[in-house]
Amino acid sequence: MLFLCRCTDFESRLLRRIFDFTEQIRSGSYICDSYRAVMERWRGRVALVSGASVGIGAAIAVELVRLGMKVVGCARDVGKIQKLAAECQSAGHPGVLVPFKCDLSKEEEILSMFAAIKEQHKGVDVCINNAGLAHPEPLLSGKTSGWKNMMDVNILGLSICTREAYQSMKERNVDDGHIININSMSGHRVLPNATTHFYTATKFAVTALTEGLRQELRAEKTHIRATSISPGLVETEFGPRLFKDDPDKAAGLYSEYKPLEAKDVASSVVYVLSAPPHVQIGDIQMRGTEQVS
């Protein structure tokens, strides 16, 4: 049986608002609009994203541009970032992506990049240390050159970028900056996989460096925040590059279960940046639901 009733104007408006709100929740636009509102304080400000040519770094760079930030994306392959920048412009995103060629294993290139950012954009407000790599070099038989390369990029490059970003914030009296290290679940546990043991050591270092950075920032009486984001398996070019000499292993890496996607990690970066200024998010650990280790 259908009952009809006459609604007052107030009740009609209330029902319409409830209906619209329900539709926003269903479509996800309410969440997006909420993030945009909270992220408004970052609009027009400068973020550096290392390793921005592919995978997680590219996803982070595009998402921050979509939210109105000026993003300096650096990598050795700057051509891919230039393509991303054009796509962002075509999409009408309110921010801008600025490509910059930089080899994070070379300090002189990092310092030159920060000098250029200072000259062209005044400085860095957000530093996202995403660049990282792995070589299948076991502890008992690995090549020293591979170990050094991992240390140069994963530890020293990250630390140099962190130092320079902080100095950039300090000299401009930026007290609400943020330094985010894209870490790994490998920075929290050791898997029985000889090919990744040295890589794992570099990620344990990132865990320690992030907490050390937080403590030093507190000692400086600044409100600049430090966060580590530690994803498990993410479907990017990382795995195929690691196992480039074993195509079968590379092909099967993402077939056992649904891994994380690069956009999932990008969303966690937005979540961290959108936290109220008094909230310090130290570490986010995230895995695909079906991932065991």
From TrEMBL:
The keyword Nuclease does not apply. It comes from the Eukaryota. GO terms for molecular function: 3-beta-hydroxysteroid 3-dehydrogenase (NADP+) activity; estradiol 17-beta-dehydrogenase [NAD(P)+] activity. Keywords: Oxidoreductase. It catalyses: 17beta-estradiol + NAD(+) = estrone + NADH + H(+); a 3beta-hydroxysteroid + NADP(+) = a 3-oxosteroid + NADPH + H(+); 17beta-estradiol + NADP(+) = estrone + NADPH + H(+). It is an enzyme of class 1 (oxidoreductase). SUPFAM superfamilies: NAD(P)-binding Rossmann-fold domains (SSF51735). Its EC number is 1.1.1.270, 1.1.1.62. Pathway: Steroid biosynthesis; estrogen biosynthesis. Pfam families: adh_short (PF00106). Gene3D superfamilies: NAD(P)-binding Rossmann-like Domain. Belongs to the short-chain dehydrogenases/reductases (SDR) family. Catalyzes the conversion of the 17-keto group of estrone, 4- and 5-androstenes and 5-alpha-androstanes into their 17-beta-hydroxyl metabolites and the conversion of the 3-keto group of 3-, 3,17- and 3,20- diketosteroids into their 3-hydroxyl metabolites. Exhibits reductive 3-beta-hydroxysteroid dehydrogenase activity toward 5-beta-androstanes, 5-beta-pregnanes, 4-pregnenes and bile acids. May also reduce endogenous and exogenous alpha-dicarbonyl compounds and xenobiotic alicyclic ketones. This is Dehydrogenase/reductase SDR family member 11.
